[in-house]
Every structure is written in structure tokens, then in C-alpha cells.
Amino acid sequence: MYFWDISALKKDLINNNWSEQADFKYLLALIVSYLLASFPFETSNIYDTYAWLVGLVFTIVGTVVCFKKNEANDGQHFIRRYISISWVMTIKMIVFLMPSMLFLLIFLKAFGINFIEESTIFDVGVVAVISAIFFWRVVIHIENLGAKTA
């Protein structure tokens, strides 16, 4: 994996001296870099940090599991599959979650329950559940590609 020598990297890419595993390493490094850059430095409480850590762990583990499932199938086109399937699952999660969250907010307001502005252990749990569902579905869809049953 190259960290600085762009000329050597470009030479390997031009000469097709590359593999799906190399693609995966760069994708994972990029994801981890983005996640580390999103660390909540100005956090309101410790639960913000916990939620970030839960998201970090699920993202890394979920991406690794997706890669392993893809390798177990035909081992081809991981990044293409991972990104496109993740995109569609993200849209589906948003479409599902937005009305659910709106309903919850209306329900809480109707019964005079105030929405808590600071993060709590509940928020950490929500991040864990949403992340687990998201990566579970992405893994299933990647597995289905190997079984040729889309």
C-alpha cells in the first residue's frame, strides 16, 4: 500500500498490477480516515463519543465482513458492489427512518415529553441498531450477488 509515492502507485495502476484486496485496503483506509476526522471533539457529553465509537466499529467490521462475503462468492468488483449497494441501502434507511423519527417526535410532543437535546445511552443504542441493520442488509445483498439471485 502506497502512502506517499504517487508515481509508483500510478505505475501499478497503469500496468494493472492491482487486486481486489488492494482496492479493499485503500477503501478501508479512506473510510477510517473519514471516520477519524469526524471525531466529536466539541462533544456535549461522553455519549457523543460512545456513539461515534459504535459507528466506527460497525463501519470497520461491517466493511470487512462485506469484503469477506464478496471474496467467498466470486471475489470480483467489491468496491463497485459495496458502494452501489451501500448507496441504495442508505436511501432506503433514510426513507424508513425519517417518517419513523417524525412519528416518534410527534408522539413524544403529544404526551408532553420533551425531546432531550443531549445524547444519552439511548442514542448510542440507536446508532448501534441502525448500523447493525444497515450492514446486515448490505452483507445479504452482496451474498445474493454471489448466488446470482439479485
In short:
This protein is mostly helical and 150 residues long. It has helices at residues 6-14, 20-37, 46-73, 78-110, 121-146.
Features of this protein?
single chain, 150 residues, mainly alpha, 5 helices, globular
Topology:
Elements: H1 6-14, H2 20-37, H3 46-73, H4 78-110, H5 121-146
Helix pairs in contact: 2-3, 3-5, 4-5
Describe what this molecule looks like in 3D.
- There is one protein chain.
- The chain contains five helices and no strands.
- Helix 2 (20-37) runs antiparallel to helix 3.
- 12% of the residues are buried.
- The protein is globular and about 65 Å long.
- It has 150 residues and is mainly α.
- It has one domain (18-146).
Summed up, the domain count is 1
Rg, please? 19 Å
Distance between the termini: 33 Å
Uncertain segments are none
